[in-house]
Write a structure and sequence with these properties.
It is a single chain. The protein is built from 11 helices and 7 strands. The protein has about 350 residues and is α+β, with helices and mostly antiparallel strands. The strands form 2 sheets. Strands 2-4-5-7-6 form a 5-stranded mixed β-sheet, with helices on one face. β4 (about 280-290) and β5 form a beta hairpin. It is rod-shaped.
């Protein structure tokens, strides 16, 4: 058994990669048609007579089919000339039917009874050929429709992936530059926080560069990324602001699209914490309940607070972009509400997680 399996695998691989694969499919199809015709042809004649007759039938069926598929459909039907195509198809079958009858008549010239039967059944020969030709047309139409549908879905998927990659690529580069500047300042001061800061930054970069290429990532890693992000954002704040982060629920075995929640945090830090506010605050609460995630972010707002204009960037990839990502990734499984007041901004997100 161990010797047979590699041989079978090699034969299969060679067949799948062979340029003759399509030809062999056609040969197999017509052999099956021949087998069915012989099996269903009940008469009193010997087997070899039935076999020869059905071979001729299959040969002429194939001529009608391939003439239709290779010439009539590309030249007329695909060009929208339905009436012209129908006329040509009808007269093609009408022309080939007597040729088929003559071939059968000559083949069975030693059997006058069989010859007479072919002459009497010319109407059936015509209708059977017309049925086969029409069936090949229906098959081609369905095949073209399926191929077009697959191509459209592939194009839609590639377009969606390109859009998602573009949206993810717009993560705010200023965050990285600010963090590096803060790390540099800490090293000059020989602060004990410098090694911890470098470690958090390395974790963030590793997550963004290597793990975010997947369609879904573990929720626990995404939350850890957010916590590191918030800790690094705190470094640039010169005042003592009220920043709270609470995570509740079991995150094990849950998955989420990477960097999906980051824009909300970016938005909160950009507009909730600035030098114009004496007592700014950011309150982040994330609750995981079975398969559902609920994120609530409330932040103070100064004169430069966010607006409801969807075209305005609100830090990072912007609220407009994250809304688009939610529409693509969680089309029917998320609810996003925002509340824009004079002194605060509130975001409430609920979505169904993957498990």
């Amino acid at each position: 058994m161990s010797l047979i399996e590699p041989v079978k695998k090699t034969i299969k691989e060679r067949f799948m990669s062979s340029p003759m694969k399509g030809t062999w499919y056609h040969v197999f199809f017509w052999l099956m048609v021949l087998f069915i015709l012989v099996l269903t042809d009940r008469n009193q004649y010997a087997f070899h007579i039935t076999l020869f007759k059905e071979i001729v039938n299959v040969v002429f069926f194939a001529i009608v089919v391939y003439f239709n598929l290779l010439f009539l459909i590309p030249q007329f039907l695909k060009e929208g000339k339905v009436l012209t195509y129908s006329v040509f198809l009808f007269f093609s079958v009408l022309l080939i039917s007597p040729i088929k009858t003559l071939s059968l008549y000559i083949l069975f010239q030693s059997f006058p009874i069989i010859q007479q039967r072919f002459i009497d059944n010319q109407g059936f020969i015509f209708l059977s050929s017309l049925f086969v030709a029409a069936s090949s047309t229906i098959f081609q139409i369905l095949n073209d429709w399926q191929r077009t549908d697959i191509e459209n879905k592939e194009l839609e998927y590639k377009t969606t992936q390109t859009e998602l990659n573009f949206l993810k690529s717009q993560i705010n580069p200023h965050f990285l530059f600010n963090t590096l500047n803060n790390v540099y300042a800490l090293t000059l001061k020989k602060s004990d926080r410098a090694p911890e800061t470098v470690l958090k930054l390395s974790e963030i970069m590793r997550y963004m560069l290597y793990e975010c290429n997947e369609r879904k990532v573990p929720l626990k890693k995404e939350i850890n990324y957010l916590k590191n992000y918030i800790e690094l954002e705190k470094l640039r704040i010169s005042k003592s602001f009220d920043i709270e982060v609470n995570v509740e629920g079991d995150t094990d075995g849950k998955f989420i699209s990477p960097l999906l929640l980051t824009p909300f945090i970016e938005n909160a830090f950009k507009h909730g914490i600035n030098q114009q506010l004496l007592d700014g605050y950011i309150h982040v609460k994330l609750i995981v309940n079975q398969e559902n995630l609920q994120l609530t972010i409330e932040n103070s707002k100064g004169s430069s607070g966010p607006t409801e204009n969807p075209q305005k960037k609100s830090g990072g990839i912007g609220l407009a972009n994250v809304k688009r990502r939610l529409e693509i990734l969680y089309p029917d499984t998320h609810i996003l509400n925002t509340e824009d007041k004079i002194d605060h901004y509130l975001i409430e997100l609920s979505l169904k997680l993957d498990t």
